[in-house]
What we know:
The chain is α/β, with parallel strands linked by helices. The chain is built from eleven helices and 13 strands. It has two domains: about 20-140 and about 265-295, Response regulator (Rossmann fold); about 145-260 and about 295-324, Rossmann fold. The strands form two sheets. It has a seven-stranded mixed sheet with strand order 7-6-8-9-10-12-13, sandwiched between helices. The protein has a six-stranded parallel sheet with strand order 2-1-3-4-5-11, with helices on both faces.
Amino acid sequence: MRTMRKLFILLICTVLLAGTAVGANRNQPVRIGVLTDSWGPTPGVVGLRDGLHELGYKENKDFVIGVRFTQGDAAALPEAARKLVEQGVNILFTNNPAPAKAAQAATNRIPIVFYGAGDPIGLGLIKSFARPGGNITGITDLDLDLDTKRLEIFKELVPALKRVLFPYDSSEAFASAQAKNYRDVARHIDVILIEKPVRTHKEAEAAVANIQKNEVHGIVAPRSLSFNIPGLALQAASQRRIPAMFFTTWYVDNGGFASYGSNYYESGRMAARQVDKIIKGVKPSEIPVEVNPNLEFVVNLKVANAMGIKIAPQVLSRANRIVR
Length: 324
């Protein structure tokens, strides 16, 4: 994955272009408001910007990007979405299920382009992939379908894996669906899934703070950034020398054991084509939702060696990238 470059974050001007098509007034840059539960611009945002550049758009002349991020606070997303709507953005761009749902609740008029909403039909974001309906389209990674493979790969990497901790925000429908998926596959691969549903940041901290290596053999992080659970999992795994499996490469590059999931940068680049269509006047309801086929399996061999984990060569050979 490309190194994330610094994004220029600006306050979005408050002029509202109510009732006009996105591309109707090209005397001003198209204002793209990013809503994310992350800690700043994400790989998908960088991919979106680069994708628009590739399509011939010039930043600050043809488009501007403003980012509102809630640092793992899912409860702050509705207000952040409302502020973007009030500030008159022309297009909303979201990552993850929770920001997409917050944007959907905030407006039925402004076009919304999501990426990373792993089950857009189940989440109620769209009616179908071919005809999304409403004001929403986007790029999905079908992350719920990847859960099975993610846990299977974890078991292949660590054959002695028996007890796997899965901490998650129980108030999020997508995280609860992930728990069910992991629960089902665990039964078939001789793994005991230790579920830790939490509802507050304090509970999330407690869920991972006291785990012991003899009680938990591995951690699988939820897709949601709520309460910074993936970050807490990364910290606990490093401190207690317990392997952890993540959904994106960022955590592996920062000391995690392994990851399996979509390339979010490519999701952003793909979404640029949808944004281009919206700018040219196509309704989101008429733009099919696409699936990002770019999957990444990354292993941090330095972490594995430090933990004394010997990975079978045939498993390691399947990795798209190895951190040495």
